[in-house]
Amino acid sequence: MAYPEEQGGVPCGFLRQNSGNSVSLDFEPHTEYRFVEQLEERYKCASCHSVLHNPHQTGCGHRFCQHCILALRELDAVPLCPVDKEVIKSHEVFKDNCCKREVLNLYVYCKNAPGCNAKIILGRYQDHLQQCLFQAVQCSNESCRQPVLRKDLKEHVSADCQFREEKCLYCKKEVVVINLQNHEENVCPEYPVPCPNKCVQMIPRNEVDKHLAVCPEAEQDCPFKHYGCPVKGKPSNLKQHEHSALRDHMLLILEKNFRLEEQISDLYKSLERKESKIQQLAETVKKFEKEFKQFTQLFGKNGNFLSNIQLFWKGRRTNTTPTLIFIKHS
User: Disulfide-capable partner of 34 in 79, 109, 213, 237 (CB 3.0 to 4.6 Å)?
Assistant: First the structure.
């Protein structure tokens, strides 16, 4: 009985008439198939008893899968047919292409039944699985290992997969869904977090420091910290503190002013010492200026005095003593 193949198949009869088409047909051996009609014995391997894969026929007329006939040769130098114990002679073994075409055109049910009700010729079985909507496939999202039916893959990738990427609702950054909660609670700069001072406001994470500067529940330093008051508290409590610690604050101010006066006094004393030193230096400068002026007048009246001195020292270096002219000073 012929069955029109579903999902883009080719009529069985055509394939049986055209042996050339069988070249591209094949199936996975050692796999359990559900045949539409009961599998005839002539299509079963005489060794493994499964459907024949690349059948070869021996001289005694029995058929074997290609890998089964090779296995028999490897096991025994003189292999025997397991059916009739006849010696299998290599030159009598031939590839049974006629049987192969018949096997490849046997109809089987899709393994994904009852979801998929397709009937496919055995030679197109793998091609069908590459398109079957009920075949389990791997999710395309990186790191996802969950098998998904092909018909559900699109929805899984876009809506269900824990490894898909989605935009953070707050910072709009693309984040893998499985990491989204951690991103929001620990990383996202725009995620609203409670005020550390437990005020009623929720603040974006990156604005917490700015909020703390104006938070009504934030502890602040006493206005008299500059004078040495160590008290901290909320603004409402600091007002009460200012009134209750008025005397203490005044004492701190007086103590601060006393220390400042001492520092000012020390600065005045240091300044007086420096002024005295400056006066001494000024007198020394005047003295040097006076002496320099005298020397200038002396050299002005005796212009060749320096040149005579230079000639004298030059003569000393060359062992010749030039005539040194001394000018009598008035």
Answer: 109
- pLDDT of 128 > 70? The answer is yes
Phi, psi (degrees; rounded to nearest 5) at 98: -65, -50
Task: Please give the Cα distance from 177 to 16 (Å, whole number).
Answer: 53
pTM of the model: 0.52
> For residue range 300-313, what is the model confidence (pLDDT) as tens digits?
655 555 566 666 66
Residue 290 to residues 8, 35, 281, 300, 330, Cα–Cα distance (Å): 123, 132, 14, 16, 19
d(CA 138, CA 118): 22
- The answer to whether the CB of 161 falls within 8 A of the CB of 90 is no
Total length of the chain: 330
Q: Topology of 41-134 in CATH?
A: Herpes Virus-1 (3.30.40)
Average pLDDT, the chain: 83
CA atoms within 13 A of residue 175's CA, in its CB half-sphere = 17
More confident residue, 224 or 5: 224
Residue 56 burial (10 A CB sphere; 0-12, 13-18, 19+): buried
The span from the CA of 153 to the CA of 142, in Å, is: 14
Integer Rg of the chain from CA: 55
User: Domain segments of the chain: what residues?
Assistant: 41-134, 220-285
Q: Dump pLDDT digits (tens) for 11-53.
A: 333 233 333 444 478 899 988 999 999 999 999 999 999 999 9
On the CB side of 329, how many CA atoms lie within 13 Å of its CA? 10
Q: What is the pLDDT of residue 307?
A: 62
| 246-301 vs 235-244: helix crossing angle, rounded to 10 | 90
